[in-house]
């Protein structure tokens, strides 16, 4: 079954009770039993819920995995991965990553005795120099948030397998429409399903997908024991979003390309970060592991002018100034004061997150309206 068909039918079947094509919203916390322990596969909705089960099967299908898990947020999904580790373990992470991930790693799990190395991973050979006997996990984002750096998943997997280390990939920006890390050697794929998977800015959710049953069983245990699950209504909304993922992503990519090219020629713009440019440092790797280049773009204004960047995002009319990304509507953000404010300024700026950086999530509106909006905001 090819991807576009998987988004509609992958892991799905008509409801057994009445043949409903869409999985029903099982808005229940518990299930009747005929005798103690005698039930129809469901006993309590923290552990399992039929709507969530349908969603988890869909997650596994579109990522070419065997097991999917749905969580209450992307950070809850990352938290579950971290709970596979023990005090004294070490993690090698990309230095350019989502601010919430950095906060979880440094403010929560460092306190539990886990050590993190935040490094540049654009050259995957750099990873191996940080590996030691305590290294248990390599954490990759690609494309990275917000600098759009590309990390070679296959090369990272080669390092991980050589040293018997888990490789987890945050695939939020690319989605399985563009990139399937399990096929490239990753052990775990993570999504903030709040973003492109849901696609309509109406839910908060996280997802994990794996191939290995032993690893899946550990994560299912953590999911149930910790309880950071999503509800049936959000599961239903995410399933609905997945069914249009392929058509939405096609337009995100088309619009993203047009916006990136417009910004690249604008006299007030200093740098544009988008992996589709041949000048992008890892463009060839992006071409190898991605099917297109997505709708996420970051750019800086000339002179690294903080005030100018703030005025631009404040004066946008079609783009909405808001946290998050991946919805059908275009969003704009100022990472230094919004999504990445939890990262110290010195650490931010080492990765390129300067005060003038603006991040765009290019939606599926008419491209002429998006470019006209950027033009008037920059002129203002």
Structure characterization notes:
The chain is α/β, with parallel strands linked by helices and 380 residues long. The chain folds into 2 domains: 240 residues, Aspartate Aminotransferase, domain 2 (3-Layer(aba) Sandwich), CATH 3.40.640; 135 residues, Aspartate Aminotransferase, domain 1 (Alpha-Beta Complex), CATH 3.90.1150. Helix content is 37%, strand content 15%. It is built from 14 helices and 12 strands. The chain has a 7-stranded mixed sheet with strand order 1-7-6-5-4-2-3, with helices on both faces. Strands 8-9-12-11-10 form a 5-stranded mixed sheet, with helices on one face. The longest helix is centred in the C-terminal third of the chain and has 20 residues. The chain is globular. The mean pLDDT is 96.
